[in-house]
Amino acid sequence: MPSPFPGMDPFLELRWGDVHTSLAVYARDQLQQQLPSDLRARVEERMILEIQSPHETRRSHRRPDVQVVERSRTGLVSSETKSQATDVALAEPRIIRLDDPLTQRCVQIVEVKTDRVVTVIEFLSPTNKLTLSERNDFQRRQQELLDAGANLVEIDLIRRGGWVVAVPEEAVPPDEREPYRAVVARADAAHEFEYYHIPLARRLPAIRVPLRPADADIRLDLQQLIDQAWSNADYSDLAYETADCPPFPDEDREWIKSLLNELQTPQQSANDS
Questions:
Q1: What is the CATH number of domain 10-49+100-238?
Q2: Whole-angstrom Cα distance, residue 192 to residue 185?
Q3: Do 51 and 132 form a contact (C-beta atoms < 8 A)?
Q4: DSSP state string for 179-224
Q5: CA 11 to CA 239: how far, in whole Å?
Q6: Which residues lie below 8 Å from residue 3, measured CB to CB, with a gap of 6+?
Q7: Which band of pLDDT confidence, cut at 50, 70 and 90, is reported for residue 54?
Q8: What pLDDT shows up at residue 53?
Q9: Stretch (H or E) spanning 20
């Protein structure tokens, strides 16, 4: 069963953890078929830990090479040690709480011989956009990639949250700022960006993905990714009629309402007959 939307299905935000993982994997597969023999597309995983103490909250990025496990404290201090330490005051520790780690994925195109990252493809998530600290964190990582000489492709199919793509919002004409967007920043074209405006009611585009200067661009068909994710996971259980729709301008909200009403009418007619 296909998605009822001709382009991006905005209600997929309700399943974004699953959708995001699928998009990264399917994009890897789609790109790998087009790459020169000495390049590889890889899904890169990073974990974000939110550290909270009475004095600060900060986010820490980690690659998941170390696992921390909690063990029981029972029996850590022997009775002999306890008796010897009765006159020593215990120090008060600082309590630091780590929230459950968030796992984010991107696609990296790397050079086989040098392991150099040529291009990074980011599918944005709500955790990149909702708060000021999240947006600052994403844009810091964004700048690090650009400073390192990597191409950067950002695909924003999330309605909730602020503007974080590499192109400043004020640089884009007002009628092309909503609702979805993709940005390509080429390593050999500093301060120049390719901007794809993605309207809600249209098919998602195929965009250019740059590699090394001597390589031809390859393409990433965004609609194929969404269709594949929707079909393989079968999101037909999404309760469109009762679910909260992500924020849209009034015109788009009316279009969504009209589309969903048209879909329900044949079903209601069949039930009545």
A1: 3.90.1570
A2: 7
A3: no
A4: SEEEEEE-TTSTT-EEEEEE-TTSPPPEEEE--STTSPPEEEEHHH
A5: 9
A6: 9, 226, 227, 230, 235
A7: very low
A8: 43
A9: helix 16-32
Residues in the chain: 273
In eight-state DSSP terms, residue 35 is: S
pLDDT at 198: 95
Contact 41, 108 (CB under 8 A): yes
Is residue 198 within 8 Å of residue 187, measured between CB atoms? no
Per residue, the 3-state secondary structure of 117-141, as one string, reads: EEEEEEECCHHHCCCHHHHHHHHHH
Flag whether pLDDT at 39 surpasses 80.
Answer: yes
Tokens of 36: 């020169």
pLDDT of residue 13 exceeding 50, the answer is yes
Query: At 78, phi and psi to the nearest 5?
Result: -75, 160
Classify residue 191 as left (phi > 0), alpha (psi -120 to 50) or beta. left
Q: Rounded distance, CA 77 to CA 83, Å?
A: 10
In the chain, the DSSP E strands lie at 39-53, 56-62, 97-98, 102-111, 117-123, 151-156, 180-185, 193-198, 206-209, 218-221
